[in-house]
Design goal:
Order of helices and strands: HEEEEEEEEEHEEEEEEE
Structural class: mainly beta
Distance between the termini: 39 Å
Shape: globular
CATH topology of the largest domain: OB fold (Dihydrolipoamide Acetyltransferase, E2P)
CATH class of the largest domain: Mainly Beta
Number of strands: 16
Number of domains: 2
Helix content: under 10%
Low-confidence stretches: none
């Protein structure tokens, strides 16, 4: 199957084992923003042929074949495992009724290497709520001609976000994939474009891969 088929709501495949072919690695989280070893390692992938809705995902606790396989952006892989729509993390985090789509403990095998797909251009308004933004989760996207309302702020635990709106549930830029410093730019900074992977933790975020993804 393709990721866009696995995540098609009409198929209701959450909790089932699936075989997925031809997905390309778009980003690997090597930045440990919380400095405790728990906030790095996530692999983000999407269908190699279509940069469209429901075509992206992240991996939880993958097993690589061979065991010494080290993935990089542009690697195309096949994988098999359980597709989940994660609503809780432990006993303290509950996203209900929203969720984080993931492949749970998949077996991953490299097929070949290719060019990274171009980011799909979306409207920042799509990320204003889960129902419209969910289709871009895990995807490499680009938003153009946008203003970030608040400067990057550290939550005290190393997580830095810069909100697009005053809503606590609104979209934000995050430091999940690279060291975006608190105060890196002032309130109401305009950007020609912001590129990154769409992530979710209570609200939808765009995680740039480097400073080059933030174009003023």
């Amino acid at each position: 199957m393709r990721l866009r088929d696995v995540q098609d709501p009409s198929r209701a495949l959450a909790g089932q084992d699936v075989n997925v072919t031809s997905v390309v690695v778009t980003a690997i989280d090597t930045f440990d923003e919380t400095k405790d070893g728990k906030s790095r390692g996530t692999v983000h992938l999407q269908d190699v042929d279509v940069a469209g809705p429901l075509a992206g995902i992240s991996l939880f606790s993958p097993t690589f074949v061979p065991a010494n396989l080290r993935l990089a952006p542009g690697d195309v892989v096949d994988m098999s495992g359980q597709y989940v729509e994660q609503q809780t993390i432990g006993t303290t985090v509950d996203f209900t009724p929203h969720f984080l789509p993931q492949m749970n403990k998949p077996t991953v095998q490299q097929r070949f290497e290719t060019q990274l797909p171009a980011p799909v251009v979306i409207d920042i308004a799509d990320l204003g709520n889960f129902d419209t933004g969910r289709r871009w989760l895990g995807m490499l996207v680009e938003v153009d001609d946008v203003t970030v309302l608040h400067q990057p702020i550290n939550d005290g635990n190393g997580r830095v976000t810069a909100a697009f709106t005053s809503l606590t549930t609104g979209p934000a830029v995050s430091n999940e994939l690279y060291d975006l410093p608190a105060g890196a730019f002032p309130d109401n900074t305009h950007f020609k474009s912001i590129t990154g992977v769409v992530t979710f933790f209570f609200n939808l975020k765009i995680a740039p891969r480097s400073a080059a993804d933030l174009v003023q």
